[in-house]
Amino acid sequence: MFDDKDLLSIDVAKMYYDLDKNQSEIAKALNLSRPTVSKLLKYAKEKNYVNIVINDPRDQSSNLELALQEKYHLNAVRIAFAPIDEEQQIKKYIGIRTAEYLDEIIKDGDIIGVSWGNTLYEVAKELMPKNLKGIELIQLKGGMSYSHYETHDIEIMQKFVDAYNAFGQFVPLPVIFDSIELKNLIDQDRHIANVLEQMKRANIALYTIGSVTKNSLLYKMNYISDEEFTYLQEHAIGDICSRFFDSNGDICYEELNTRTFGIELAELKNKEKSILIAGGDKKIQAIHTALKHQLANTLVTDRFTAKKLLSL
């Protein structure tokens, strides 16, 4: 049986928590003093008529990070708490979380390799300036485009240079050449050789992952022919730095790969921190494959993608 105090405390709790009335308003409505309302709210909690649960996203993220780290044998995982499972929101919050992580780890003398694309652009926009010395920045693949689609390669590089007071090495070359002969000729230039060597020397690499769809920048920018795209749809899981890989984590189109200018997948495995920054339904299998075959040792993703990866 409930006595009058129990019933009154429940009424006060409903007004306070459900109707969002403040204590003064409740006191006036029920002809009570404000201290009495406060005591009744406390009594309702003590009697378990009111249960308050605080959902701290940091707690959930920490558990997801540890689970992913163990599953894929990663050095580090960071989870972005995106509010909804929507592509642009995921990119935005992954960008914020990556910028926070970089603020933790970037130190004097680092050589940072950076890819391009919409996800990396979100990262670049969120970078927090640090007073650092001796930072070098190198673009991890060609980015020049004659299409109206924006790679954001120059903007990304400039934002990193500004944030970390870095020396930036831009790469004003296409990411995929029209012919192997032209690509080989470019590789023979000693200045280009120095750029490729700097990519290898970078101790931190930041890149995203691409899905094999007609929404991909590489396809939209006409770097890939319809015939090549059809082949990739049948054999590729995704791409990292425009290197397309299959379900075994191996390059799946060697002829296209030889025309691609940028860091090799094998070189990413040797980095102190090879950081994959990606999320979203379209990229789940590609992310899973890349992590399974150690193409990255660090992951920044969102909570929705994290849960889906754990369910595979």
From TrEMBL:
InterPro entries: NagB/RpiA_transferase-like, RNA_pol_sigma_r3/r4-like, SorC_transcr_regulators, Sugar-bd_dom_put. Transmembrane segments: none annotated. One of its GO terms (molecular function) is carbohydrate binding. It comes from the Bacteria. Residues 60-311 form the Sugar-binding domain. The keyword DNA-binding applies. Keywords: DNA-binding, Transcription, Transcription regulation. SUPFAM superfamilies: NagB/RpiA/CoA transferase-like, Sigma3 and sigma4 domains of RNA polymerase sigma factors. Belongs to the SorC transcriptional regulatory family. This is RNA polymerase subunit sigma-70. It comes from Viridibacillus arvi.
